[in-house]
Write a structure and sequence with these properties.
The structure is a homodimer. Chain A has a 4-stranded mixed beta sheet. In chain A, strands 1-2 form a two-stranded antiparallel ribbon. In chain A, strands 3-4 form a two-stranded antiparallel sheet. By secondary structure, chain A is α+β, with helices and mostly antiparallel strands. In chain A, 49% of the residues lie in helices and 8% in strands. The longest helix of chain A is centred in the first third of the chain and has 21 residues, at 25-45. The interface between A and B is large, with 63 and 63 residues.
């Protein structure tokens, strides 16, 4: 059993002491994949009304234009860029997921690093190492209080993200161990966010703040702005206030041997994860039967599928994200399941609306949540059966590098039409050979 | 018993519906006193190293110079001004205190209002009304989870201050009820701060954020940036996440009849409140016996006095704030108990250091915490006995208007020597007759 005292110091020491050559190749590669996915989701969210409004309000208080806002021509100061890029990456719930905690780890961390990289010279290896460490600290701090913390109603991506951004930005800034403890303490002072705000723009303030305030924590600590010795586990520390009996072993066990970033999943579709195996079936079938007229669909899956997503009647794009009926109908009509399929416009499409009424959902406890079977009856009277054992993007069937590239290409096509995103993709895969990454985020910005 | 649902709406409706002519004269007067004290403590903190560093870091990201930083020549954007003025007002623990919750209510609220007042035309009555309502909401949200919340280790001034700043700024911005619910929801998403950070600069980030993020909440809500319907008491709402069974009656009982601002106390001395009656005795005696040489002192008080402040050996100004021995010695040597008496320099003064060794603390359960008795033995062999039943600044013996004015004058003398603070004092007492208060904070800034 670990000593209660000093657990923050152990994490801080680990962050400071870990070097590039400590990272296994698989971890480096996963960090590149996380960045690929991050840029895709940040582009996808970059013109959401939530981001438009936040930008309008924050721009009035911003000083410099030193940092890029992904997908947009405007530039803004680094703190606000961190806020907007994090909020944008998470706004459509299309982020990566740390499966053991349900944290969306990269959205709060990467924007803090990219903003900082525009203000001081750092290499691609510096950024990859900082991203790995930021995600590691964020996920472990969450793991130590999972699943209780999220269950109480804390938005774990926001509450833990601020630690990840502080750790990552602190690494990029070259903090010493004591400064890193302070950075984590200043982050602890700012850890916030409740699940009641999910489904509303208010959520995005939590995710944006996680990135901004984590970056601020590191910048303050770099100027010797002090904090307590053990902010996480002190007698009035973070875990105590949260009412948690933290599993301290989750914080430090196998630190440096097991890497949490390897436990990250990516979403191929911007909707509830339980619908994903259903969409795999429907899209695969449609590709083979592009002319078939669908009469009726029956979807069978884990009871969670029906509990969360048996919604034949919906009115908005946001509701569509948790409606199996809608996802199936939209995918059959358009042959796709991208952001455009989960908008108000698609919900109100008469063809989609009619087909929604012909989709049923059946519970079957023998199905794991990542599997599904679909029965499609076509106008010629034939019944077609398709099934998926492990959804694409699940731990058992991870998205391939090509699929992540395609996700980024599709996002760029929608958000910044006509912009060539290939240089960004090439830069991400080659990041460990880049000496200067100050312009990385700018590769996802439309030309002036 | 109130219905759980809609409690945020009831508060929002109250904020929106309350007009100037609903405020009793005593409430208006107390708001002016709170502002008088606020400017005093903000001036006192304005050059603290914590504020210097925060200003240095934040100025790099700031856009405009639309708002004053109290006590300083620099100007900065309104969000950062709210942060810095709140952090500065609280940094030395010299703030007002809402006695039932231990919230320091004005530090997070007033800076948000003053910053906003520099960007849009508002009257003195607008600001006073917004201050009363901001403090009211902040204190009631805290009351409903007191004393459990603070006891767990939440820094209640930071966690509840963000609601107060959002409510007050929202009132100044003229939000409707739905927008006000959103503002409180965005504030709930940002409510943060742990007591582990007390005694370190990290604390100030919590108090500064409360003001900044509350103001941001109101500004976003004014642009129809939405939040949930009942952020406080929804199923995954603020109280649920905090693990509290809130006393909902504390939120809304006698709303508009009883005013929490009337339950505010002000500190005459920048040190632990339990030492205050001791200082009353010592300072009064010293005024009458300016030439007497002190041989020995015995202080008798509530057991809390000894538990918290029986510290004959100290090394820093911060420790001095919780040392009866130091407070007594410094007051006897200098005849004062201001900020200068709780610095490292005063702790290291050889005369003060010697006298600290001659002060004893005795426990007596018959003494309430606001009372004390002091026995002073002088070089001529005489024993002098002085006592205080209710410390100045306690609820039973509140600081007079003159004493608050004097506190502000002394603070201005130290922070901005040569600056005439009388126009600010006159403006505060006459605030309900001022049509334009955009330059109020500027009256506490040294001439260029």
């Amino acid at each position: 059993m670990l000593q209660a005292q000093g657990v923050t110091e152990r994490l801080a020491h680990f962050i400071v002491a870990t070097r590039w050559d400590h990272l296994p190749p698989a971890v480096v590669h996963e960090a590149k994949r996380a960045l690929m996915n991050f840029f895709a989701v940040a582009l996808t969210g970059s013109h959401d009304p939530t981001i438009e409004t936040a930008l309008k309000v924050l721009a009035g208080f911003s000083g410099g234009g030193e940092a890029a806002i992904i997908g947009r021509r405007e530039r803004i100061d680094a703190l606000n860029a961190a806020f907007l890029n994090a909020a944008g990456a998470n706004v459509l719930d299309f982020c990566d997921t740390h499966v053991s905690t349900a944290i969306h780890p990269t959205a709060p961390v990467a924007p803090a690093l990219l903003a900082l990289a525009e203000t001081k010279p750092v290499s691609g290896r510096d950024v990859l190492l900082a991203l790995v460490l930021g995600n590691e600290i964020e996920c472990r701090i969450g793991l130590a209080m999972s699943p209780g913390h999220y269950r109480k109603g804390w938005h774990i991506t926001s509450t833990c993200g601020v630690f990840g951004a502080a750790a990552g930005a602190g690494k990029l800034l070259g903090l010493g161990t004591t400064q890193m403890i302070w950075a984590l303490g200043i982050a602890a002072m700012q850890s916030a966010g409740i699940c009641e705000c999910l489904g509303t723009p208010a959520k995005s303030v939590g995710v944006g703040n996680a990135a901004r305030n984590g970056l601020l924590s590191a910048l303050l600590a770099a100027k010797n702005f002090e904090g307590p010795l053990d902010p996480l586990n002190g007698v009035q520390g973070y875990y105590h206030a949260m009412g948690e009996q933290p599993d301290l072993t989750a914080l430090t066990k196998t630190l440096g041997d097991n890497w949490e970033i390897l436990g990250t999943a990516y979403k191929p579709y911007p909707c509830g994860f339980v619908i994903h195996p259903v969409l795999d079936c429907v899209l695969d079938w449609r590709r083979e039967h592009s002319d078939a007229v669908v009469e009726r669909v029956v979807v069978t899956g884990n009871p969670l599928l029906a509990t969360r997503t048996d919604r034949p009647k919906i009115a908005t794009g946001r509701e569509a994200q948790v409606s199996t009926q809608h996802a199936v109908a939209a995918a059959l009509i358009t042959g796709q399941a991208g952001v455009a399929q989960f908008t108000d416009a698609c919900v109100n499409d008469p063809q989609v609306s009619t087909l929604r009424g012909k989709v049923g959902v059946v519970r079957d406890e023998s199905f794991p949540p990542t599997s599904a079977a679909v029965e499609i009856v076509t106008a010629d009277g034939q019944t077609h059966r398709v099934s998926q054992k492990a959804a694409r993007g699940s731990a058992e069937n991870p998205m391939s590098d090509n699929a992540l590239e395609a996700k980024l290409r599709a996002a760029a096509r929608d958000a910044i039409p006509g912009h060539d995103i290939s240089p960004l993709i090439a830069a991400i895969w080659d990041l460990d050979n880049k000496q200067d990454v100050s312009r990385l985020a700018t590769l996802a910005v439309p030309r002036q």
